[in-house]
Specification:
By secondary structure, this protein is mainly beta. It has one helix and eight strands.
């Protein structure tokens, strides 16, 4: 699951540099949605309170909003909604999986790095018994010095909660 989040962040940063700039001095807004099938596994290594590996499958939706201002500053937001199911490989128990992901990028596409990137993700697995509720939470913030292009990474949250 976390590897998928990192791949999304990398893809969004690449896409940020490929998006078109407006030819006028007015802001331009582009929106679209992408349905992404997923078929993967969450293990007790990912979430220590799980007593079994959970097969996760279904489709999540990426909602992209891109705004380029009149002064060519670009703001891109990706919001993810889920329609996923999980099945425990040992017990056959059904898990409901949901939670939002919000990813934002702000910057000038003519620079090699954006000014700022924020990733906020909460994945919730709701299952039976002792597995109960599992929350995987990530809040990551990256800024780049626009002269040296040195990144400053702040990991505000990267944990697993078991209830």
């Amino acid at each position: 699951m976390r590897q998928r989040i990192i791949k999304i962040a990398i893809a969004a940063c690449i896409a940020f540099g490929l998006l078109p700039l407006p030819s006028t001095a007015q802001a331009v807004k582009t929106t679209y949605r992408l349905d992404v099938p997923i078929d993967g596994y969450t293990t007790p290594t990912d979430a220590p309170c799980l007593s079994e590996t959970v097969h996760v499958f279904g489709t999540y939706q990426e909602h992209f909003v891109n705004i380029v201002t009149g002064n060519a500053i670009q703001h891109t937001t990706i919001h993810q909604t889920t329609d996923l199911t999980g099945v425990g490989l040992t017990t056959g128990a059904t898990y409901q999986i949901g939670g939002p992901l919000t990813f934002t990028v702000t910057g000038d596409p003519s620079n090699p790095f954006p000014f700022e990137v924020t990733l906020h993700n909460i994945v919730k697995l709701i299952g039976p018994g002792q597995n109960g509720k599992v929350y995987l939470r990530t809040l990551l913030h990256i800024t780049w010095d626009q002269t040296t292009f040195e990144p400053k990474v702040t990991v505000d949250k990267n944990d697993v909660l078991c209830h």
